Automatic annotation (TrEMBL):
The lineage of its organism: Bacteria, Bacillati, Bacillota, Bacilli, Lactobacillales. One of its GO terms (cellular component) is plasma membrane. Its main location: membrane. Pfam families: LysE. Keywords: Cell membrane, Membrane, Transmembrane, Transmembrane helix. This is Amino acid transporter. The chain crosses the membrane at residues 12-31, 38-62, 68-89, 140-163, 175-196. It comes from Companilactobacillus halodurans. It is a multi-pass membrane protein. GO terms for molecular function: amino acid transmembrane transporter activity. It is found in: Cell membrane.
């Protein structure tokens, strides 16, 4: 139970800071039906848990070893993230809901995949956090610990989606537009940071 609780608390610490995944879930909860926003949260959970598994077992070390892999992920990831942010900024107040509700399942899955897996900094940070912790654990505790991390991810994103969805009706169209703009700007800044890291790595 101790290892499970350690995984649970580590998982919350891993997911709680505001990042692209949280913004993605918040935006979906604000602009989609509750059913579809929950589906979006479940898709994010799947990719988040698989990334946590990969970090725990050392994918960050592989990325550090192969610089070309970092470059590809940084470039493609930054451009797609910036494009996502621009789309949010371009959406009009009266079509925030309708445009998002038209997202196909494929687009939701591909966007969630990019948000989680095309952020090298998150992969490396996650590897340092989870991978470093792995060294302190006995081998037999790995499944228990990583199960705690996975459950923390599920609880966090489902709760976040539910709470935002529950209270979104209290926001009028103007407030939704402002939130959308804020999310869009932050996402573009994330993408810009990834692009800067790409050129820094390329020229360094």
């Amino acid at each position: 139970m101790n290892f499970f609780l350690q995984g649970l608390t580590m998982g919350i610490a891993y997911d709680a800071p505001i990042g692209l995944a949280n913004l993605f879930v918040i935006n979906a909860a604000l602009t989609q039906s509750r059913k579809k926003s929950l589906l979006t949260a479940l898709i994010i959970i799947f990719f988040d848990v698989t990334l946590a598994f990969a970090c725990f077992f050392g994918i960050g070390a592989i990325m550090k070893k192969f610089e070309w892999l970092q470059l590809i992920i940084l470039l493609v990831g930054s451009l797609i993230v910036i494009f996502m942010g621009i789309n949010l900024l371009r959406s009009q107040t009266n079509d925030i809901s309708s445009s998002q509700n038209e997202m196909t399942i494929f687009k939701t899955i591909s966007s969630a995949f990019v948000v989680i897996w095309f952020n090298p900094q998150a992969i490396i940070d996650g590897s340092m956090m989870l991978g470093a912790f792995q060294v302190t654990l006995p081998n037999y505790s790995y499944p228990i610990f990583i199960a705690g991390v996975g459950i923390a991810s599920a609880v966090w994103f489902i709760l976040l989606s539910f709470i935002v969805s529950k209270f979104k009706d209290k926001f009028n169209a103007k407030v939704l537009r402002i939130i959308n703009l804020i999310c869009g700007v932050i996402i573009i800044l994330y993408g810009g940071k990834l692009l800067f890291n790409f050129f820094d790595l390329l020229l360094g």
